[in-house]
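Teaching note: in complex prediction, the entire set of molecules is handled at once rather than each chain in isolation. The prompt given to students was simply: 'Predict the structure of this complex.' The entities are:
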Amino acid sequence: MNNLVSINNLVKYFDLGRGQRVHAVDNVTLDIGEQEIVGLVGESGSGKSTLGKTLLGLHDKPAGTVSFKGDQLPGKYRAADFQKYAPHMQMIFQDPYSSLNPRMTVGEIVGEGLRLHSDQSTAQVRDSVAEWLTRVGLEPDHMSRYPHEFSGGQRQRIGIARALILQPEFVVCDEPISALDVSVQAQVINLLDELKHSLGLTLLFIAHDLSMVRYVSDRMAVMYLGSIVEVGRADEVFFTPRHPYTKILVGSNPEPDPNLERQRASTTIEGEIPSPVNIPAGCRFANRCPKVMDQCRTQTPELLPLTEVAGETAPRHVACHLYAG
Amino acid sequence: MSDPLLSISDLRVEFDTYGGIVQAVRGVSFDVQAGQTTAIVGESGCGKSVTVQSVMGLIPSPPGRITSGRAMLRGTNILGAKTINGQDIRGDQIGMIFQDPMTSLNPTMNIGSQIAETLIVHRGYGKSRAFQRAIELLEMSKIPEAEKRARQYPFEFSGGMLQRAMIAMAIACEPDILIADEPTTALDVTIQAQILDLLGDLQRERGMAIILITHDLGVVARMADEVLVMYAGQIVEQGSVDQIFYHSAHPYTLGLRAAMPTNDPSGSKRLSPIDGSPPDLFNPPPGCGYCPRCPQAMKICAGEPPPVIALDQGQSARCWLHHPDNPAAAKPNQAPTGQPGAMDE
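The expected output is the structure of the full assembly:
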């Protein structure tokens, strides 16, 4: 499999002034293959959304590189760069309420990409919008309505049509379902799945719902405080987590099965995710880790491939001193 | 089973809106047993929050209106009442925590004083005694450095810590019932697990009943003894947590379970969504509210509202499938199977 997107040592920080700096994304390296769905999980504040936005040029890149089909993307996008890359890389946003302009009709929202990035006539744009609305399960005559006339699930479909009308190769889905009800989540997930197969999409699927990420993704990456702590095949990471943080994350995920829940030992950990301002030296998880060792507090573990794992179909990478050397 | 602590019967709530009258709750009846957790599950707009808000007297009127029903707390009807025998209901006999602790707390008061206020108002404590008690309550909610934290303001707390502070406030007067309205929806899974553990511990220590409102079936499986499934303003199925998960009787309950990914590695690789959307409660349909989305709908479902049909061992479902006159009669389904006809293409 060729890599569609390669992220190398990507860094994104925000300066707060007075020498304080939020390390939102710190030295992340990740490859995303063609037509692969990579799930990105982590708690709020772990930098998942910032990583997604930095990939698409919505944030600049202070250090590190991102390549798309072998081309290195510019560190800071100018208008011409957006013009060049937007047709290939798109984003589906988390909140279907605030991400659609309330003063534009659905037809304008969905068709805007085509108007800016193609030389189709107004009539052609209208036809494509109608086609895409049908494709995502809405009616063509919804085009003349405004976003407030739709339910959350329908708005998320509008957001999907908006992102996909340019037929991009790569789409970042930033928590596309977390604002939706359970029955509607399944509708949107199945729609994404169908479109993935019919269009050959590559997706970075950001979510905090582990069961859903396992279900949707080929591979899963777990982020903690700006860096990736574990990557591997989604099923394998979910069922045999290696990094202590992944174990706790999986163990905290309540399962819709009362017998399983009764048998399960409590895996809760004390404390909360620390502030990403002025991150301490060593492993970021050290102060909450049940298996912390002396070296964890001083040496930052690298994301290394795990060697002796029998029966795993893709290499597993873990950033933890327990597995090093 | 002993007498229920709280018994709600035939609760109906309406709201006046520009579009007409919304019938948010349409005849809800259930019991809450002391020391048990009763979970109410359902999608947004199904009436689960309105049900408990009317018990708490939190329905704004106008536009809201409780048109019928009773809520008996130890034999006294508390609907519309503020006190029983001189004791406040809200905050004293029934405590409540909300989904969004950030907006439920006063940003201009320190946390300790907000908790102390409950005790000053309901128990007539003096200021300093109430503040001391607030610190103890924060310790009980497992907030580290409670003494220092009590003097801090809500913006200095994280989401999980705020929810602990809310719990401390809700249990200040040692209520018999704690209502938790989506208490962990805004929190991350690791924090959610901490909060659910805390609620479980407090329940064991104090024998409180908990009414837990959630849309997350995982949280239900972890916490609940009894489960009520709500749809379009009505309870469509109720039973013990095992009955609901292993012998679901109502097609909506089955649909909800099939729409969630299971963590069974051999599980089927496709989710079965419930197509369509819930009915408009301005004009509730004459028959079953779930009928237009139900894969097992029959002719009678569209025209006649189904009665509540009692099944084995306290389980009941509001569904014609289980009516004794239905020839295809009603063995509760064992597993969430793919729903034929659910996809209309």
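Point out the following to students. Residues 103 and 287 of chain A are 48 Å apart (CA to CA). Residues 182-199 of chain A form the longest helix (18 residues).
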